[in-house]
Write a structure and sequence with these properties.
- The complex is a heterodimer of chains A (about 80) and B (about 950).
- Chain A is an all-alpha fold and about 80 residues long.
- Chain A has 4 helices and no strands.
- The longest helix of chain A is centred in the N-terminal third of the chain and has 16 residues.
- Chain A starts with 8 loop residues before the first helix and ends with a helix.
- With about 950 residues, chain B is of the alpha/beta class.
- The two termini of chain B are about 40 Å apart.
- Classes of the chains: A mainly alpha (about 80), B alpha/beta (about 950).
């Protein structure tokens, strides 16, 4: 997936669900640990294009994104 | 085919008992029979009822011997050796007795040896010669069984009662080897005869058609129909079954190039001479008329297929892949490897994607089954692997079976389990459905925790809560083998009242007292082993559950020795191998992350190409990207995702969006309807390579016949990579394994030569473990110290409501296999010709549903029609179906929800509603006719 492209709504919905689900499995942890866990997971398992699409959507909208996931995405921004 | 038979089973132990047989000294383990001692000394004592796969029975009276200092002529099969014993096997007295015994047998046996299907492969015939039978004085006109009927009801073997010598080997094989107890000896004395169930034909009896009785029969009484039709085999090739993750070893027996029968290999490490109905009998698909043997291409999926040469098909695919990359970027294409294929084939495809495609967009069908195993066991133990060999279960005192149905899904291993359970081990079953293991002949679970689908994590947390709060933690093990800090965190977490069985009872539906009792049994009952299947992984918290089980095992010290462990029962023959071979988009072979420059350097040096340091797309991400128009080309090796993956409407929409879909398969399956290039695959009988089973056992897959399409699959991948500008070639598949060994530390000691010498080997196999590793984490975990992970229960988003008040869960049946591409093309359809939906009597009554009635199954994403089967195997509120027939459309109704960590689909929890309908299920014949029409065949 080359170049900066805007994410498809269905694809964003899928990525949003995935990110929120990862975050929901971190909520038992202290805040910083939770962010670190989600960040590590996204870094290890998500393709850069997925991070980029969700980050673009977060910048444009972001409604419904778990705050833990949002912080993790933000931390990964330079990579995406 | 001649197989060495030592008469009675080997007795483990030191060879401390000295015996002399016909003047030949031999040392044996205490308890060894005289018959076996003699065989080990090279003295073959005649026998009929004895065979070394069954306990001695002592009925045929042919193996009589004389023992110095003892009166009479004891049966050598039931006489244990004692120190200093002097045995004589050939004396006038025993020779006369044996001839007399044989004379009686032959007096009631058809004298049709020359036309008998077992002529030349009959122990009765052999023994008549061995004992020197020259006459039968009793005549054949007295009372006899010569006109007894033949039962031909089973599609794979016949039972010719007239040839039965009532040795009970079949009855004992059914009991001891298979554990089904379907056969018995009915009647007494002269009226004794073998009977299936209560005198029923085999086909309608409780017989599961494993074939153990056929293999045990010393005559032609129980005989494969292929032997009757084709004749006794004349040559053989050792290979490995291509069905489930047990990975049974077989001896393929042929006449010329014609496969006659598959005989389970006594030396097989996984199966020790046993098999199931699929492996032994259901191999006819390999030469089925539906196989597509020539490459085909078409410009659009609306066009007719054009048969082309291999060169044209590969050039066409390469050009279109390259064109997509030119127009849309390197990452716009990718592929999927198959757990049906060999390690070598999988390795080459992932290499093609990483080196020729230039990205990490490679995933595997394990995504939809055991990807949570990979995640969970790596986090806790350090690697994605079952901890035990199959033999370990013989030393278990407690077995926990979670979300698995071994008697149907992994039947040969289930037979091992049942053997141990009959010997007294305790069983805990955790499953919403009452599987056969809960109660079957001579097996009864101590506890069946019949939980609500989707609450696995709650149950395992509750069990761990009991362990922690009732002082059942193995403190010494934890202190020595596990991390202090992660254990302390986990201990505090799991001890919270919210994780107690009482607090979670309303969630799981399991009485707290049962959970407590099961946890106590697991923690204190001796060696406790966990075996699990897709009922664990295919959930929104599949990975969490895997880690929860690992926590429980570590906390109780049930890891790192024989009889214990955490063991995934892998669904397909090479799930373990396909994962080992670097099929996941974030990992290179050996489960090493692509971001590790040292690991990439190993492969870059060998492959001569830079490897993308970023993870690629998983299957669901590929499909999403396809619909979004950013993923346009795909190579699919041996997987029918248009049938097997969830929410198939979404899958089909994605496949339909592709500019190029290349399918490499045996058949024109559902996925091939969306393909532009079809590359014929090879059946397991044609492959040359290795499979790795659920116990990490690497087995050789040897070609029994030439590739029907003219090419091995790895050759095709090499040619495609080469055509795309990345030269890739191997002289033989052995060279691919050599490359795997050179790049992957856990495979460093593996080679075809090594496997040919040792039969099989369990990885890790390297300098530290040259003979392989049957049990993992013995002295230390792969990651060093065991890591505990907090596992909070997070309910799935898939909820029942007034519109969809039932939970649908899915599974397998014994006679069929996955999407049925193979088994539907065999006589196995005689047992299961269509999928049905099981519904509890209460739920059926409130909806006016009766057994056999067609019902709609509707979820929020789709609807399908199946026939109902009213059954109390499922609890109220839960319905269950299998997914072996494409027309059933089980995955039309499953949703897009998946495991949080791995995206493994949540197949096991779908909210649905059932309603009677006048519509009829789509039949297999209708689907096949459609496929033949697509292929342009009559």
């Amino acid at each position: 997936m080359s170049g900066a492209v805007h994410a498809d709504p269905d694809q964003v919905a899928s990525l949003l669900r995935m990110a929120n689900q990862i975050a929901s499995n971190s909520h038992h942890k202290p805040h910083d640990d939770a962010v670190a866990m989600v960040q590590t997971h996204l870094h290890d398992f998500w393709a850069p294009s997925m991070l980029r699409h969700l980050t673009e959507w977060m910048d444009a909208d972001g409604e419904g994104l778990d705050p833990i996931a949002a912080e993790a995405l933000e931390a990964l921004r330079p990579r995406g | 085919m001649s197989i060495i038979d030592l008469g009675t089973p080997a007795i483990p132990g030191e060879r401390t008992v000295d015996v002399v047989v016909d003047g030949i000294p031999v040392f044996v383990a205490p308890g060894t029979s005289v018959l076996r001692a003699a065989a080990e000394a090279g003295v073959a004592i005649p026998k009929l009822c004895a065979t070394d796969s069954l306990e001695a029975f002592g009925s045929c009276r042919l193996c009589l011997v004389e023992v110095e200092g003892r009166p009479g002529t004891p049966a050598s099969c039931t006489t244990p050796c004692t120190p200093g014993m002097q045995v004589r096997t050939q004396t006038p007295k025993v020779e006369k007795l044996r001839r007399g015994v044989m004379e009686l047998y032959i007096s009631d046996h058809p004298l049709d040896c020359l036309t008998c299907p077992a002529n030349g492969d009959c122990e009765l015939q052999d023994m008549a010669g061995v004992v020197g039978l020259r006459e039968v004085r009793y005549g054949l006109d007295g009372a006899n069984h010569l006109d007894a009927p033949t039962d031909d009801s089973n599609p794979y073997f016949s039972f010719d009662e007239s040839k039965c010598i009532a040795c009970s080997r079949c009855v004992r094989a059914c009991a001891e080897t298979q554990g089904t107890f379907a056969l018995t000896i009915e009647g007494r004395g002269f009226g004794s005869k073998v009977s299936a169930s209560a005198g029923e034909p085999f086909m309608s009896s409780e017989c599961v058609s494993c074939g153990a009785c056929v293999q045990a029969c010393p005559t032609s009484t129980l005989q494969e129909k292929t032997v009757i039709d084709l004749g006794v085999p004349t040559r053989s090739v050792k290979t490995t079954c291509a069905y489930c993750g047990v990975g049974c070893s077989f001896v393929a027996e042929l006449r010329g190039d014609q496969l006659v029968r598959m005989v389970p290999d006594k030396d097989g490490g996984a199966n020790a001479g046993h098999s199931c109905v699929k492996g032994r009998f259901a191999w006819g698909y390999a030469t089925h008329r539906d196989r597509q043997l020539e490459p085909m291409v078409r410009d659009t999926i609306q066009d007719e297929w054009r048969v082309v040469s291999w060169a044209d098909a590969i050039a066409y695919a390469a050009e279109r892949f390259l064109a997509i990359q030119r127009d849309h970027g390197v990452g716009a294409i990718g592929g999927i490897t198959s757990s049906r294929c060999t390690n070598e084939e999988v390795y080459v495809v992932q290499k093609m994607i990483r080196a020729a495609f230039g990205n990490n967009n490679v995933d595997t069908c394990a995504r939809v089954c055991h990807s949570p195993t990979g995640y969970g066991l790596k986090q806790t133990f350090g690697t994605s692997a079952g901890t035990q060999d199959f033999e370990s279960v013989a030393h278990s005192d407690v077995m926990v079976v979670i979300g698995a149905n071994p008697t149907d899904g992994h039947p040969v291993f289930a037979s091992r389990m049942k053997r141990r359970l009959r010997a007294g081990a305790k069983l805990i079953v955790i499953d919403p459905r009452r599987i056969d293991l809960v109660r079957s002949p001579h097996v009864e679970a101590a506890y069946h925790l019949q939980l609500q689908p989707g609450t696995n994590v709650a149950i395992v947390n509750a069990m761990s809560h009991v362990v922690v709060t009732e002082g059942l933690v193995d403190r010494a093990f934890v202190a020595e083998r596990c991390e202090d800090d992660s254990f302390a965190q986990w201990e505090a977490f799991i001890a919270q009242p919210a994780n107690s069985p009482e607090a979670l009872e309303a969630v799981t539906g399991v009485p707290a007292a049962d959970v407590r009792a099961a946890a106590r049994l697991y923690a204190t009952g001796g060696n406790a082993a966990i075996y699990y299947g897709l009922g664990v992984t295919e959930h929104s918290q599949g990975s969490t559950m895997v880690m929860g089980m690992a926590n429980l095992a570590m906390a109780t010290g049930n890891i790192g020795r024989t009889g214990v462990g955490v063991n995934p029962l892998r669904g397909q023959n090479n799930v373990q191998g396909s994962c080992d071979m670097g099929s996941f988009p974030h990992e290179l072979p050996g489960y090493r992350h692509v971001s590790d420059p040292a690991v990439r350097a190993i492969f870059e040096a060998v492959w001569g190409r830079a490897i993308d340091p970023e993870p690629g797309l998983r299957i669901p991400n590929m499909l999403d990207a396809a619909i979004a128009g950013r993923y346009l080309g795909m190579f699919i090796q041996g997987e029918d995702i248009a049938q097997s993956d969830p929410n198939v409407q979404h899958v089909k929409a994605a496949l339909g969006s592709l500019e190029l879909l290349v399918v490499q398969d045996l058949f024109l399956n559902e996925t091939a309807k969306f393909a532009h290039v079809f590359l014929p695959g090879t059946s397991f009988l044609e492959k040359d390579g290795t499979f790795t089973n659920a116990e990490r056992r690497i087995n050789r897959v040897r070609p029994v016949m030439a590739a029907a399409s003219g090419k091995q699959e790895w050759e095709v991948a090499c040619e495609l990579a080469t055509a795309m500008g990345y030269p890739m070639s191997y002289a033989a598949s052995a060279d691919i394994m050599d490359e795997i060994a050179a790049t992957t530390p856990t495979f460093a000691g593996v080679s075809f030569d090594h496997l040919d010498r040792h039969g099989s080997v369990q990885w890790p196999c390297n300098d530290a473990a040259p003979d392989g590793t049957p049990i993992m984490h013995v002295d230390a975990f792969v990651r060093g110290k065991g890591h505990f992970v907090e596992t909070p229960y997070v309910p799935t988003d898939e909820r029942t409501n007034r519109r969809f008040p039932l939970i649908l869960t899915t599974g397998r049946i014994l006679s069929q296999y996955n999407v049925g591409a193979q088994t539907r093309r065999t006589e196995n359809v005689r047992w299961h010709s269509e999928d049905v939906v099981e519904v509890h009597p209460h739920d059926a009554e409130t909806r006016g549903i009766a057994t056999g009635q067609a019902v709609t199954i509707t979820s929020r994403v789709g609807e399908t029609v199946l026939r109902a089967k009213v059954s109390d195997r499922v609890p109220q509120g839960v319905v269950y179906t299998t997914f072996h027939f494409p027309g059933s459309g089980a995955n039309v109704v499953t949703t897009e929800y998946s495991d949080w960590a791995t995206n493994c689909p949540e197949y096991k929890v779908t909210a649905v509603e059932l309603a009677p309908t006048s519509r009829l299920p789509v039949t297999d014949d209708e689907m096949d006719a459609e496929h033949r029409a697509v292929a342009g065949r009559p």
